[in-house]
Amino acid sequence: LRAEGLERFDSPGKGRGLRVTRPFKLGELLFSSPAYSYVLSVKERGCLCEFCFTRKEGLARCGKCKKAFYCNVKCQKGDWAMHKLECSAMTAFGEKWCPSEMARLVARILAKKKVQKERCVSEKILLLGEMQSHVEDVDNEKREMNEADIAGLYQFYSKHLDMPDHKDLLTLFSQVACNGFTIEDDELSHMGTAVYPDVALINHSCLPSVIVTYNGTSAEVRAVQDMKPGDEVLISYIDLLYPTDDRNNRLRESYYFTCDCQECKSKSKVRSSSDPIEPEVINNMVRYARKTIREFRASKNLLEMCEQNIDGAIRYGEKILKPYNRLYPPYSLNVSSMYLKLGRLYMGMERHSMGISAFKKALAIMEVAHGKDHSYLVELRKEMAQK
């Protein structure tokens, strides 16, 4: 089973995996995969088109439920097969309509499976049903969450879906928990959740060889180092900021395995837990910076938002980038998104040269991770040209 330049293989100690059969250069696209199914986050409604995830002002809303927004009639028609699962239910339940994002995605997968009889374009190498479920490893807490999601599925979707039996539903929820991808924007803000079976075949490493970014609702996989034939395609499943033990606890908790990449074996000195800046401190900084930026974006008017807050966020960003640059791999979206936020804050404060220099650093990473022609880069170059 192979796609252009790629093949599935048995990865020693890891189970199935994906490797390249030809050389790929730094920044080169290995493959692009449309989503098998996807769903826009409820909190992003009105900001993004439900169908193509384009962010723009003046989206048109669905006349029936008044909750879903689209670029135009074409997008609305394209989305109807999925939106109809929720349209009348949202009206009927009103405030009580509250399925989890996971349940919403599973509902869409079930609807799609019903009409999708042959292999889908997102399953060139791995079928949806072949995704790992680890259903036997699920602990009580996760199982209770799955049961609650299943209850939500019955409550809000039973009118439109033929439900498989309980065991199959549990398996599907577990598969989506292990293999689902969060679709994020250029600042790593959560836009929605999706499944990409072919991308789900890729194993984890704390020294990844590729990075996954999103173009609309499609996932794109690009090399973050030069690759030669036979090299395994590896992404990072988790935030790489943490020391080895923390990373492995997270991997065990969410994905049921322990990593034995070089980085974990050597427990590299740089990341010892005695690091002067603890991950928690950094996390709090990031949360603070994100919150400030959200408020800043919401207010758009700098007078509304006191300048010291923005100054505080800028100082945080500058402080955080030192450990970020040291601890993350050379091409990291965590780093580029931080430079992007910082650049936008500088520009908002009329500190243009500082803004441009932060933008340039973001650009250097994003050209590799997102590709030179991505709409985010087109936008960014426009922001840099504004005086």
Question: How would you characterize this protein structure?
Answer:
The strands form five sheets. Strands 1-2-3 form a three-stranded antiparallel beta sheet, with no helix packed on it. A hairpin with a 2-residue loop joins strand 1 and strand 2 (6-11). The chain is of the alpha+beta class. It has helices at 73-83, 87-93, 101-115, 140-157, 166-179, 197-200, 244-255, 262-265, 279-299, 307-327, 333-348, 352-369, 375-385, and strands at 2-3, 6-11, 15-20, 29-33, 37-40, 60-61, 69-70, 180-184, 190-195, 203-204, 210-215, 218-223, 234-235. The protein is globular and about 55 Å long. One of its GO terms (cellular component) is nucleus. Residues 49-87 form the MYND-type domain. This is [histone H3]-lysine(4) N-trimethyltransferase.
